[in-house]
Structures are given as structure tokens and as C-alpha cells.
Amino acid sequence: MKSTCSFVNGKFCKDPKQAKAEDFFFSGLNKAGNTDNDVKSSVTTVNVDQIPGLNTMGISLVRIDYAPHGQNPPHALQPLRSLSF
């Protein structure tokens, strides 16, 4: 079997025939983050580094956990877009 290697967006791009379910899965978003800090919140970020199958899609996922009176301090995402629910 001939193997070719290419990089897209600085990340290794796997031959689609060799893609596995694990390339599209991350198990950490179901776990609560540690909110024992000054802002009483925790942010878990998931992007192409954790889910290689997201490469070229421009998708990132975030879980934010808040303790009572917790906050997510102001921050900028420019030029990115954000959807919270």
C-alpha cells in the first residue's frame, strides 16, 4: 500500500481511506471542569488538536462550567464567530 503525506492548515491530512471513528471523537466534553478558581468557571476547548477530523472545517467546541456566581471574563474571538447555547 502506497502512503502519501500531506499537510493542510499545518496539520497532517490523513488519506480518507485510512480515517477511523477516533479521528472524529473526543470524550472530554462530558466531564465537568474544575471551577475552584478566582472566576468560578472552567473552559474546556476542543479543536483539531483533539479531533483530527475537524481539520479544514473551521470548527471548535467549548464547554464552559460555572459555579454559583461564576463568570466567563470578557474576551475577543475576532475574526472568529461564536455560537453559545
TrEMBL record:
Keyword tags: Signal
Boundaries of every Cupin type-1 domain copy: 28-75
PANTHER family: GERMIN-LIKE PROTEIN SUBFAMILY 3 MEMBER 3 (PTHR31238)
Name of the protein: Cupin type-1 domain-containing protein
